[in-house]
Sequence to fold (558 residues):
Amino acid sequence: MNEKKLKEAFMRAFDLSPDRDFEALGYRKIEAWTSVGHMRLISEIEEIFDVMLDTEEILDLSSFSKAKEILAHHEIDFQH
Amino acid sequence: MFLLPEEPGFGTKPALIDPEGGLELNYEELATAVGRLRDEFSAQVGALVFLFSDPCLETVIAYLGAVEAGLTVAMIDSGTQATSLARLLDLYRPEGVLGPQQLRRMLESRDYRFRAGAAFAPLFCAWREGSEECQSIRAEEAVLLSTSGSTGSPKFVRLSRHNIESNARSIITALGITPADRAISSLPLSYSFGLSVLNSHLLAGASVVLSRKSLVEKEFWEHFTSTGCTSLSGVPYTYQLLRRLRFERMSLPRLRAMTQAGGKLDVESIQFFSELLASRGAGFHVMYGQTEATARISCLPPELLPRKLGSVGTAIPGGLLEILSEDGRICPPDTIGEIVYSGPNVMLGYARRREDLGRGDALQGRLQTGDLGTLDEEGYLRVTGRKSRFAKILGLRVDLDEVEEAAGAPAIPCAAVDAGSKIILFLEGASDRDRSRCSKHLLSRINIEASALELRPIKELPRTPRAKIDYRELKSWI
Fold:
């Protein structure tokens, strides 16, 4: 459920299709993930999960798996 | 030597720092490397070279060495796409290309031949066949800079060595840059603002940290603090981003100055940064400039905030600002008119193709900026808007005429309008298929964020009685 929501955030931020290999996405690895795209992604994630990320977390969120790791600290569960 | 301090005593001071590779070049080593490259380039005096502006030691050495040897260096954004590059190569026929290895195959198919250069290992250096016997007269243009930041636009500003050196000198005085200062490459070197940070710090005998990382990567901030940077430069978007990153919580103990140019920053943010920096014993410098004036035109000293809030300051040393009415008369204080700047940093002119190089000084030191503004009784400038057809998107200037041209659909009349944070391109009688085709075409030719471009099909474009597109009417539709 949360995984699907996270994919939704990535899809909206970078205009991606649902069949994308999300695990392979990374900062500067796709054209849309620029510094501007990065802030768009942060906004999408904050909105969808209703969280407020701090500086460290924003700078650290450089891939799909990193996003899960960071959100886990906000008690958002990706195990189920 | 070009942009290197002449006073003795700088020899062992670090000039350039590559934090990723842990490399440091002091002024003596830099001068030696530049001298070696100048000698290597001396057979190509007067040639035009494209230099990919990846922020690294080799780029800076190549830039300084080529200008010192009397070549013209066109700074090419390292993100330039293949189609844009091909167009630039066709229009400008550069004798040489200095860039990443990945270009090798493309260049070899265009009769460029790789030449090994001792001074130059990591950069790919290729010369066009038959270009050995080129002009051999020192080029009057030292540097060509794109007018629109990072787009692959073929329109360049022609700058002389004198333009660059005089602007760097004025900036040093206006900002009070000292040899103890240390800047970081937070903006591309192909962008006039980014290049001016490098130029002014070198000429001041200060240090420049060349980081390939961007502000949203934690390595950037590690580089910033580990090398002890004292200043940070940004466009309005940079400052919006810094607020989102909660800049006020970051610990940057050696920070002494932040500079802002490249568009209008909202007064609330100016106040925020100016108060924050003042409380930390640092200064927030609001500035104004244009690539057509090499980079900088005016600066506002930090201590004049908040008194002069909303102003971009007075003309830099050696420059003169005037406000002209539509009939060319000087406006009285606080009256809106076109901002006209005179100074030794005003460009020679524009170039749209190779034939435009060497055309001499078209402006004679006087630039009609195309910006509207006012000067107050004390000579402080406020910028109120633009006269001509440019949009500023995320700090980069986008020529609306070029957007229309690049839409690449001659059968579909279109009109681009600046809608503040994005550009709206109205497409007359376009189907959904036309729309997506135009969008793809545009995004491949102009380096603009997809979110900053809206394509809006409409039945019919509004026109004036003379059948010209009525942009005023279009603007009222936004």
User: Anything to note?
Assistant: The radius of gyration of chain A is 11 Å. The longest helix of chain A spans residues 35-49. The CA atoms of residues 41 and 62 of chain A lie 10 Å apart.
